[in-house]
Amino acid sequence: MNKVIVAAFVSIFVLGSTATFASGNLTSSLAPIAAKDLLNYLSCKDKKPTDVVKSRTDVENGKIVRVKCADAVAVVKKARDASGDAWQGGY
Amino acid sequence: MHARHWLKGIMLAGGLLLAGMVQANISTVPSETYEALGLDRNKATPKETYEALVKRYKDPAQGAGKGTMGKYWEPIPYSIYLDPATFYKPPTSMREVASRKECVECHSDESPVWVQAWKRSTHANLDKVRNLKPEDPLYYKKAKLEEVEGNLRSLGKLGEKESLKEVGCIDCHVEVNAKKKADHTKDLIMPTADVCGTCHLREFAERESERDTMIWPNGQWPDGRPSHALDYKANVETTVWAAMPQREVAEGCTMCHTNQNKCDSCHTRHEFSAAESRKPEACATCHSGVDHNNWETYSMSKHGKMVAMLGDNWNWEVQLKDAYAKGGQNAPTCAGCHFEYEGEYSHNITRKIRWANYPFVPGIAENITSDWSEARLDSWVVTCTQCHSERFARSYLDLMDKGTLAGLAKYQEAHEIVEKLYKEGNLTGQKTNRPVPPEPEKPGFGIFTQLFWSKGNNPASIELKVLEMAENDLAKMHVGLAHTNPGGWTYTEGWGPINRAYVEIQDEHTKMQEMAALQARVNKLEGKRASLLDLNNPEDKISLGGLGGGMLLAGTLALMGWRKRKQNQA
């Protein structure tokens, strides 16, 4: 049952993928992660979950948005969980 | 006497066996290729290796021929040179039966520059190669010639004691080491990659190995792509290429996708100079332009500028392996970086690919921190550390990755806005003037086809803008970053144009929203005048009620007056 849910989740991500395509490439089996989230995730490398980093993309009310590493890591972990075996290791 | 003959025979057989063994294992061909071909690299002869490679190379299921959309397009006259294996037929105008020598003689008048270039080529001067001295930096060519002869002997195209005299017109355009005369109207061919591979098995096999080493972990790109080995397949499998009616435009695409079919793109005909192919200009015609400005941005980088300033002093004739040590090269080139893998140079240029030019392709960015990608990053560090410290190289490559993601994030924000408009059916002309694309393309939002085909409001302007923001500006931003051209990802290309596209998309979006609000108000106003009986507010109702009541009163009074007059008359 869980597999079905995960598959449905992945399908929604894949089919709902917003990217345009260069010739030929259509889909990937990895669940999408927004570039801004990947940047936050990279900024949180080797940091504690309670550490706060500056966003590399977002400004609100004239200030660079601050991101809690626990949140940044959670976003990526959720996508990686949805990717299942498609993610074969790495940071 | 007999014993001497026997001894000679045994020695010859032993020599041949040894030669066969030496030739069998092509060291620079990755194991993945031997496995894919079902060959034991330690046992396969050149003949077996060649035949297995060519079988796959010519297999339509593996990318040969017209492809899966072949029924939608027909070749134009020029196509015979772009995919000779599928389309080339010898010309019927020249009814000649010519010998090896006669080809040269006749073409000295017919196409003199071909002959002039060939005459100074290595192909026409094999004895010069044979006479190279070990201290000559080009001495490696002698071993290559011996390897070529070994390949031809294995294939039965060269006698065991025979030397290859030359590689002339007839060898490439009819048959390698042809002895007989050739019928110009029947026997002529355009030499495809497998023809070169008859001799240059190593280079052909290295190139063909791209099919086996460019396997993405999550299907980000089709297997074996992007690569030179399958560039023609990629071309004919591009839907708009097959679908668009403007065939001469489409064949411009093909001209940059013929490496699969023929080997004269980097070392051009008919000189086929390896030195030429090592120069950055060799790649420039194809690796340039609006969606992959590798040439422009490399040329503007310090790397490229050093080549422009110092390259005249370098010996481009030395092989890439010796370029830095013996060639005097002190800045990197396209070939120097992309043909290198873990200290070895080959015609497989896929093994360090991570971004593959287009950062927005699904799964590419998500994969950039994977072990697969990290291993390839490590291989890039090997390349860079021929000159730079590892710390320097890694810090720059980190900048490249994160800089690319910064551009991707900006694009994704703009893309979300425009895609929402599409999902709501609010792109300009989306419901009224959006013709379907030519078959077999399917209608869609922000598709590659819209860069090459348009009709009515397909695509809408804002849709094309966000598409080009990715396909052109974001791609160039990454290329600028990858090729160390600061202006190429900040002001001139990349961020600057992406910023402009973002601003214009936001601007257009706001205007569209304001126009929609105005339209709603106009609709409301138009709604009041739809019918006299369509009463929406109390004032209207009172007015009409008053008018009706007045008319009733007037009618009653008139009736009363009419009756009174009748009574008076009576």
TrEMBL record, chain A:
Signal sequence extent: 1-22
Pfam annotation, one family: HAO_bd
Superkingdom of origin: Bacteria
Alphabetical list of InterPro entries matching this protein: NE1300-like, NE1300-like_sf
UniProt KW keywords: Signal
Gene3D superfamilies: 3.90.640.100
Keyword hit for Signal: yes
Protein name: Uncharacterized protein
Species annotation: Nitrosomonas halophila
Automatic annotation (TrEMBL), chain B:
Binding residues for heme c 2: 169, 172-173, 270
Bilayer-crossing regions: 542-562
Coiled coil segments of this chain: none
UniProtKB keywords: Heme, Iron, Membrane, Metal-binding, Oxidoreductase, Signal, Transmembrane, Transmembrane helix
Binding-site list for heme c 5: 263, 266-267, 347
One GO process term, biological-process aspect: anaerobic respiration, using ammonium as electron donor
Residues that coordinate or bind heme c 4: 253, 256-257
Span of the signal peptide: 1-24
Binding site for heme c 8: 303, 384, 387-388
Record: residues binding heme c 7: 334, 337-338, 483
Binding site for heme c 1: 103, 106-107, 184
EC number: 1.7.2.6
Gene3D superfamilies hit by this protein: Hydroxylamine Oxidoreductase, Chain A, domain 1 (1.10.780.10), Hydroxylamine Oxidoreductase, Chain A, domain 2 (1.20.850.10)
Cofactor note: Binds 8 heme c groups per subunit. One of them, heme-4, is an atypical heme c (unusual heme c binding motif CXXXXCH) and is called P460. Catalysis takes place at heme-4/P460. The other c-type hemes mediate electron transfer to the external electron acceptor, which is a cytochrome c-type protein.
Catalytic activity: hydroxylamine + 4 Fe(III)-[cytochrome c] + H2O = 4 Fe(II)-[cytochrome c] + nitrite + 5 H(+); hydroxylamine + 3 Fe(III)-[cytochrome c] = nitric oxide + 3 Fe(II)-[cytochrome c] + 3 H(+)
Binding site for heme c 3: 123, 196, 199-200
GO MF annotation list: hydroxylamine oxidase activity; metal ion binding
Top EC class of this enzyme: oxidoreductase
Protein name listed in UniProt: Hydroxylamine oxidoreductase
Species, as recorded: Nitrosomonas halophila
